[in-house]
Amino acid sequence: MKHSNKHSNDENQTIYFKYSDPLILIMYRLVLLALVISISGCGSTPSAIYQLSKREVAKNRPAYKQFQELCASPDRSQIYKTVNVDGYLFAATSGARCKGGWDVLAKQGYKYYECSSIKVKDRSSIKFDGEIYRLETGEEGDGRCVSWDVVEDDLSYHDKVEEFQTAIEGKCFIKSEVTEPKSRYVTLLEFGRVDNNGNHILEFPNDSNQKDLISFYGGHVIDLESGESLSIDRYYKYWPEGIKNKAVGKFECNREKPINDSRALTPKP
């Protein structure tokens, strides 16, 4: 079979190339091989190549620059003041899962731990009304003591109940529901988004397909009496094509250690 492409040297001479010619076969195979390598190196499908290119294009957007500045800012992880306390209150902007807290007493040395499941949407006027979960230590034999079987069932796989029994030897855990916290300080686990002006808003957009979204989460220790921030520790993510777009995905700040939501607080001796 003759290749339809032909090369004319002059008006009187035409040269035909056949697919069976060794040189043409070699060139043809090299082109195919280069194409396969190119596709494989970028995700094995044309769609993956397209999505990868969208990630690279996103790096030229103003939102990506804003994201990089937030990651590099020294203000995203600061301790402004440290205090010694008997205990603290834990809460979250999305509502905390209030249970456990055994390690706060047994391993960290606090005398009590409190938790509120209320969703915090405004830092400037934090109020905890209603049920507050409180965990304290008491004397063995107290009718309010939590069974060690209950404690053991709630521990993570790498914790041993014997370690907790030894840490509070002669005592037990007592949990109760109260209407008002006795904590002056709250460790607030924050989730939200950053707007174009750099404001940290404690909520996500209703549209999960929103492009150029910068989200954050982190720990924030706040004095409930004065509203003063004692420490802050934030972590950022940038979603060029929205949270739902898994193909393009997200960019994240480099992180050397986990978020610490109570590092401005230390237990009293």
Main features:
alpha+beta, two-stranded antiparallel sheet
Task: State the end-to-end distance.
Answer: 93 Å
Helix-strand makeup class = alpha+beta
Please state the CA-atom Rg, rounded to the nearest Å: 30 Å
What is the count of β-strands? Answer: 14
Largest sheet: 10 strands, mixed
Q: Tally the helices.
A: 6
Percent of residues in beta strands: 25-35%
What letter string, H or E per element, gives the SSE order? Answer: EEHHHEEEHEEHHEEEEEEE
Average of the residue pLDDT scores: 81
What is the 3D form?
Answer: elongated
Binned, the helix content reads 10-25%
Unreliable parts: 1-20
Number of domains: 2
Q: How would you explain this protein's 3D organization?
A:
The protein is built from six helices and 14 strands. It has helices at residues 22-41, 46-58, 62-72, 102-106, 148-154, 161-167; strands spanning 2-10, 13-18, 77-79, 83-85, 87-92, 112-119, 132-139, 171-178, 185-194, 200-201, 213-223, 229-239, 251-252, 265-267. Strand 11 (213-223) and strand 12 (229-239) form a beta hairpin. The longest helix is centred in the first third of the chain and has 20 residues, at 22-41. The radius of gyration is 30 Å and the shape is elongated. Mean pLDDT is 81; it is low at 1-20.
Set out the fold topology:
Layout: E1 2-10, E2 13-18, H1 22-41, H2 46-58, H3 62-72, E3 77-79, E4 83-85, E5 87-92, H4 102-106, E6 112-119, E7 132-139, H5 148-154, H6 161-167, E8 171-178, E9 185-194, E10 200-201, E11 213-223, E12 229-239, E13 251-252, E14 265-267
Parallel strand pairs: 4-14, 5-6, 5-9
Antiparallel strand pairs: 1-2, 3-12, 6-7, 7-8, 9-10, 9-11, 11-12, 12-13
